Amino acid sequence: xxxxxxxxxxxxxxxxxxxxxxxxxxxxxxxxxxxxxxxxxxxxxxxxxxxxxxxxxxxxxxxxxxxxxxxxxxxxxxxxxxxxxxxxxxxxxxxxxxxxxxxxxxxxxxxxxxxxxxxxxxxxxxxxxxxxxxxxxxxxxxxxxxxxxxxxxxxxxxxxxxxxxxxxxxxxxxxxxxxxxxxxxxxxxxxxxxxxxxxxxxxxxxxxxxxxxxxxxxxxxxxxxxxxxxxxxxxxxxxxxxxxxxxxxxxxxxxxxxxxxxxxxxxxxxxxxxxxxxxxxxxxxxxxxxxxxxxxxxxxxxxxxxxxxxxxxxxxxxxxxxxxxxxxxxxxxxxxxxxxxxxxxxxxxxxxxxxxxxxxxxxxxxxxxxxxxxxxxxxxxxxxxxxxxxxxxxxxxxxxxxxxxxxxxxxxxxxxxxxxxxxxxxxxxxxxxxxxxxxxxxxxxxxxxxxxxxxxxxx
Length: 459
Fold this sequence. Notes:
CATH class of the largest domain: Mainly Alpha
CATH architecture of the largest domain: Orthogonal Bundle
CATH superfamily of the largest domain: P1 Nuclease
Number of helices: 12
Shape: elongated
Low-confidence stretches: 1-45, 63-68, 132-140
Radius of gyration: 26 Å
Distance between the termini: 28 Å
Largest sheet: 7 strands, antiparallel
Mean pLDDT: 77
């Protein structure tokens, strides 16, 4: 077959303590059968299927207290009256009464009037929840900050700068009213599962999470990791809120009481140690996965609410403490999976990055963008992995970001002879290519590694 261009690479070990490895030269033909798309359907995180989360249920010895929940008058909306400072007492009662009828489906207002009423109620909720005692969050710090910090510690692959971005934006969604929703409406960071949701205020939590996480994926596809981690930091907040049972109801109930209790006891329970986990849930559909977390946490709502309302010793109730820990641990696993879903992984040529993890049954990526030269280019690649026979490696290239990558397979599970793999990929005849991507797939389980270098030398 005629060769339009050739890509070759040689292999050598730079670790003198290892057994020397003879150089290997492989020639790839641009118009041959090695050009292919990496099959991302085969990629997956070494993690836990989200279906496993649904198997963790409240044990049968816990009391069934749904029927005992105290009915809150007016769905708890009377709580908003101190924040309705622009309304007279009569107007406050009228607005709340109209909203109750909207919730119960008995309102005589037309659709537009109902939307205006609910929007107004939602705005009062936001004012109350940001300036009053109840908050749409794991009440202040500790909470979101610690869950996001644990992600950086558990994954161990994020740069210091990007770890800082996650923490800097951990409370972004709670800090300013006009930032609370990406959809131009009030947003209580909720997914209501008991029919008590406030129209135009509730049920935006999962979509908010998906909005920012998917924006991060776009950022990564454009090699803008700095912006991506800002979006991840914003999005994780909405996901983490789904782990609080009180974000699965539209009722006020004992929301602030519970979250304050969690914050006050975070250190007493060694929660920072509890959320140091070694497994995480695979995220494939951010909005649905956030809803799954909400469904998981919702099953604890009635028990928590009954205990707080009826048990004078609820603060030391071992079931309350244990299941609160479980909620945080399971949330941490899903939060970690969300980061991996978003970054697919980041490139080590991104400023401040350390390395790219190579994990079981996972495709890992490294990117170099905006490089084109008429001179030959050499791409040094360094991969740490205990078993090179687990690995398939491709070098992808494209002329610009509007195109898909064309991939050339440069490694196909052969033996290297050392855990410190050092490759040199020589590229000639590809002068018009501006973007380059290294793709590494670990096809086996039991050993993992990292991409430690992917760079380019020209001429």
